[in-house]
Specification:
The chain is mostly helical and 60 residues long. It is flat, with a radius of gyration of 17 Å. The N and C termini lie far apart (48 Å).
Length: 60
């Protein structure tokens, strides 16, 4: 087993960390939902899809 050395030399995968955070946000939202399933709109809200679309449209 290889353990990263102490001293902050471990490489972080920022994309993977962001995906893990989004999954956590979805799990929290799903557990707080009053329905059996999250609606597509709720999922988009948790994942901030509209904000991403707005930023993409501004850049065009």
């Amino acid at each position: 087993m290889h353990v990263a050395p102490v001293g902050g030399t471990a490489v972080q995968d920022h994309v993977a960390l962001a995906e893990i955070e989004l999954c956590g946000d979805l799990i929290i939202a799903a557990s707080a939902a009053h329905e059996d399933r999250l609606s597509l709109e709720s999922i988009d809200e948790v994942l901030k899809v509209a904000e991403t679309r707005d930023r993409s449209a501004e850049g065009q």
